[in-house]
Each structure stands twice: as C-alpha cells, then as structure tokens.
Design a protein that fits this description.
With about 230 residues, the chain is α/β, with parallel strands linked by helices. About 30% of the residues lie in helices and about 25% in strands. Strands 3-2-1-4-5 form a five-stranded mixed sheet, with helices on both faces. A five-stranded mixed sheet has the order 8-7-6-9-10. Strand 1 and strand 2 form a beta hairpin.
C-alpha cells in the first residue's frame, strides 16, 4: 500500500499524519488557533524526514479540501502542492466533512439506518453541513444552512441523524426533533482520520491536477448563494 502524507488545516486545528497499509505511523496536532502558518510547514518537514529516515517513499499527498477556513485551506493547499511538485507525486483531495465522519463510523451504538451530519461552524446560527449514510454516500450535498426548528426535517422524519462537529453544539437547543442526536466528540477533522479515505482514493486513482486545484472555501458558498438570489430576481 502507498505511503501517504495527510494534511488537514481547514479549521482551528492543524494536523499532519503519515499512513501506510491502514496504519498511521506519524501524527502531529496543533490546537492553537491562528498558528497554521507557523506549525504546518515544520510538521510536514518532520513527516518527510521521518519517511526518509525509514527509507520510505511518499507516494501521494492527501489534502482536506474544505469547506473550511480560507486561510487554513490556502496555507495547506500551497504546502501540499509544493510537496507534490517537488517529489513528482499525485495530489488527493478529500472533503472536510467526509473526514469528520470517519471516526463516528467506529461507534458501536449507531443504528443501521443512521445518517451522519458533520457541521462546520459559521456566523450566528449558520453552519456548513453534509449528510452521509453509514457507507459515506452523500445523502444531502454540502450546503450553508441557517439553522431553525425546520432544518433537516425531511431526513429527520425518516432517519435518526447524528450531528457533530464544531458547528453542532449551537444547534442542540434549536433542532429538537426526536430523531436528532448530538455527539460531543469529533469537533474538528484530523489528519489521522484521512487515512482510509486517502488509501481508497489512491487505489481508485482519484487524483487532482495540482496546477489547477483550488480548495472549497467557505466563501464559495456565499458566491453560490448570491448567484441563486440573482436568478430568482
């Protein structure tokens, strides 16, 4: 199996991991806000040195591609592209919300028909959310949601939905449907959780063109919403 350098910097937490054959053998995490520019490059350099010291060739870079913080994604994207260019290896892009859902799948208390809803915090009552089934198939595409009592009713009426992420806590008192469940853990995505998704992408050869790749910034939602409003006028 390939050796993959995993980079996650879409939220206030910044992390880097190296994985091979279903195992993570290097993992660094910084939970200090506004330090991505200071810590990401040293983490990546340490990861590369670790691989080199073991005579292990890094085969690909996996990047958490958003939605998320503009600054964090920009720094991570530039770093990932630099490694890809320098080592002539492919780039793998993984949706941030999908990465957030990975550790929840290891719980043994989820019903078979459960849906997972990772939420990324935005201003006031707004979050950015995706809904997945237990096979991580997308049931509801990533969207900006101003959370009200009516939010996600179409799926809550049919399935138990597990909400988590750094945007979920503020929704707990608003979404009170009997099928709504809130998980206190899993607040931010981490590079070590990227491993199974990155390895699957490697096997399926789902690579990005590093020259033209851009992350999915939160501002993209604003642009999309503005275009929709113009169409309605």
């Amino acid at each position: 199996m390939a050796v993959i350098l995993n980079i996650e910097a879409s939220t206030e937490v910044c992390s880097v991991a190296l994985s091979e054959s279903g195992e993570v053998f290097f993992n660094r995490i910084s939970e200090k806000e506004l330090t991505h520019a200071q810590v990401l490059a040293p983490f990546v350099e340490e990861a590369i040195s670790t691989a080199d010291s073991r005579a292990m060739k890094i085969d690909a870079v996996a990047l958490s591609c958003g939605p998320g913080s503009y600054t964090g994604l920009r720094i991570a994207s530039s770093t990932a592209k630099g490694v890809c260019y320098g080592r002539e290896i492919p780039l793998i892009a993984l949706p941030t919300t999908k990465i957030m859902a990975v550790p929840v799948l290891f719980r043994d208390d989820l019903p078979d028909d459960a849906l997972l809803c990772p939420m990324i915090d935005a201003r006031r009552n707004e979050v950015y959310a995706t809904i997945y089934d237990r096979a991580l198939n997308v049931c509801v595409e990533t969207r900006a949601e101003v959370v009200t009592e009516e939010s996600f009713l179409d799926v809550l009426d049919k399935h138990p939905v597990y909400f988590f992420g750094n945007g979920a806590e503020k929704c707990r008192s608003i979404i009170t449907h009997k099928n709504a469940h809130f998980l206190d853990k899993y607040k931010n995505p981490l590079a070590k959780w990227m491993m199974p998704l990155a390895e699957r992408a490697w096997l399926d050869e789902k690579f990005e063109d590093a020259a033209y790749f851009e992350p999915f910034y939160l501002k993209n939602f604003v642009a999309t919403k503005s275009k929709d409003l113009l169409k309605m006028q």
